[in-house]
Design a protein that fits this description.
The protein has 501 residues and is an alpha/beta fold. The protein contains 16 helices and ten strands. The strands form two sheets. The protein has an eight-stranded mixed sheet, with helices on both faces. The protein has a two-stranded antiparallel ribbon with strand order 8-9. The N terminus is likely disordered.
Length: 501
């Protein structure tokens, strides 16, 4: 199960040693490849945990676990020889051999050897790599280091919409989704595979370690798929990551995946998305999204992949809830009137380490009357939760939801739908001024299908209609920040195009 980085003094000390070794290696390889190397080491190290078992049919033949353990042991021994000045061996070759023996990539449909296409490392770089191996070897056996590496990778290399979802947001969204054993779970923009791993973790926690989830991930970025494969392997999970990189917004015609659950954090406000491929499926259930913004394309694709009783949890830019363009309003109207939109949760501002864009969690469900939903269908109602003030500062310059806040948000939603499982949960739902409100379809229509949670939960329904100048100023301020962000992305794209000409 995932553990939080820095959960003990020893873990903090071991991680600091890894960070120092990475800083040394960074002078010899690119930042992106540096993290590819350390993540592979962490996966190999984690696979050596536990007892070594053998094939009962032939006790003389070591199991794959034993082969992996021998591979890691040889890698560590090789790294020690390199740091002692032995020039007859290289850490790079030993790492490649250990990775190939472990068959980590093949277990989720990726090919391991091709992941090491790079010029031969210099003697100094190989020595730095050897020091990194020894630093990883000294770390506790858990996925805490893997997650910490992903967080550093995202903070340093993430740009705009390209980042790995922070763990606290991943935990919140999966808690809202409440995955159940045996379900088919899809992330159509899977990145590091964090949603898939967390879904399995939460199911395991509720079922004494058992989970038979069918985990599926798709991503247009092959490097992200490789990292997702490593994340699954490090957590003892198998998954289907597709035959290759895939753009989920260019789905060709054919049957959908019929998922019980879709979890996704797509790129925010992406423009020039989903260029048409011959035979591409161009049907849009709630209206064709604007070509200059993919937000509602992602929402609709998530719904498209659901079974008749499936549900989706999607992280969206704040602007999607309140955009004034008629095409956006029509799609929001369709989501509300079809009863597919179940709830919205407004997250705190500045919750992402490298973007000022605010965000909302959208919860969608195809059928609120089936057994798995809860005892209250809440037909023709939408739950709004404003969690803008529930945040704690983080040491490294960004903010995060506390565990108590995650629990409060998830409990509010589960109580609203009548799912009373779990200790300490209230038996009945009540609106709470400034926190949550269940709003009828009629009231949402009267508000022009504006879906900002703050519009509905600040005060009573009578006061909501009289927000006036203050509410409008807050709305314009949020929209202005979103436009600033979009302008920044457009400037970067223009610079790239100019450099290529």
């Amino acid at each position: 199960m995932p553990n939080q980085p820095g959960g003990s003094t020893r873990a903090s000390d071991s991680f600091a040693k890894v960070w120092r070794a990475l800083d040394v290696l960074r002078g010899h390889v690119t930042s992106a490849f540096e993290y590819q190397l350390v993540l592979r080491m962490v996966v190999l190290r984690s696979l050596t945990a536990g007892d070594v078992t053998r094939d009962d049919s032939n006790p003389a033949v070591p199991s794959k676990r034993a082969v992996r353990e021998d591979g890691w042991s040889r890698l560590v021994a090789c790294s020690q020889r390199v740091t002692d000045g032995d020039l007859s061996v290289t850490t790079e070759d030993a790492l490649r051999e250990a990775w190939d023996e472990a068959s980590v990539a093949e277990r989720v449909g990726l090919h391991g050897r091709g992941l090491f296409n790079m010029p031969q490392l210099s003697e100094q770089a190989d020595r730095a790599l050897a020091e990194l191996v020894q630093a990883v070897d000294s770390a506790p056996v858990s996925d805490g280091l893997f997650n910490a590496c992903l967080a550093r990778y995202s903070r340093r290399l993430g740009e705009g919409g390209n980042y790995f979802t922070p763990q606290h947001i991943t935990r919140l969204m999966v808690s809202l989704a409440s995955p159940r054993p045996g379900e088919r779970v899809l992330d159509p923009a899977c990145g590091s595979g964090g949603f898939l791993v967390e879904a399995a973790r939460q199911v395991r926690a509720r079922t004494d370690g058992e989970d038979d989830l069918v985990l599926m991930g798709r991503d247009i970025n092959n490097e992200a798929r490789q990292i997702a494969a490593m994340n699954l392997a490090a957590n003892g999970l198998r998954g289907d990551l597709g035959r290759g990189p895939a753009d989920s917004l260019r789905r060709l015609g054919g049957p959908t995946l019929e998922c019980d659950l879709v979890l996704v954090n797509p790129p925010f406000n992406a423009s020039n998305w989903g260029d048409r491929a011959p035979g591409a499926d161009s049907s849009w259930r709630f209206g064709e999204p604007p070509r200059d913004n993919a937000n509602f394309a992602w929402v609709q694709r998530a719904v498209d992949e659901l079974s008749d009783t499936g549900r989706a949890v999607v992280l969206m830019a704040d602007s999607a809830a309140t955009g004034a363009r008629s095409v956006d309003q029509e799609i929001r109207k369709g989501l509300v009137e079809s009863d597919v939109l179940a709830a919205l949760v407004a997250l705190p501002k500045e919750i992402f380490p490298h973007a000022r864009t605010s965000a909302c969690v959208w919860i969608l469900c195809e059928d609120r009357k089936h057994l798995g939903w809860g005892h209250h269908s809440r037909s023709e109602q939408v739950l709004f939760i404003d969690a803008d003030s529930t945040v704690k500062p983080e040491i490294r310059g960004y903010r995060a939801l506390a565990e108590d806040d995650i629990r409060r948000i998830a409990t509010t939603f589960s109580t609203w739908r009548g799912d009373y499982a779990g200790p300490g949960r209230p038996d009945t739902y009540e609106d709470v001024t400034g926190w949550c409100r269940s709003v009828s379809r009629t009231d949402i229509e009267a508000a022009g299908y504006d879906l900002r949670p703050s519009r509905y939960v600040l005060s009573s329904s009578t006061e909501v209609a009289e927000l006036g100048h203050v509410g409008r100023t807050a709305e314009l301020t949020r929209e202005l920040y979103t436009l600033f962000e979009e302008a920044h992305h457009l400037e970067q794209r223009l610079r790239t195009l100019l450099d290529e000409t």
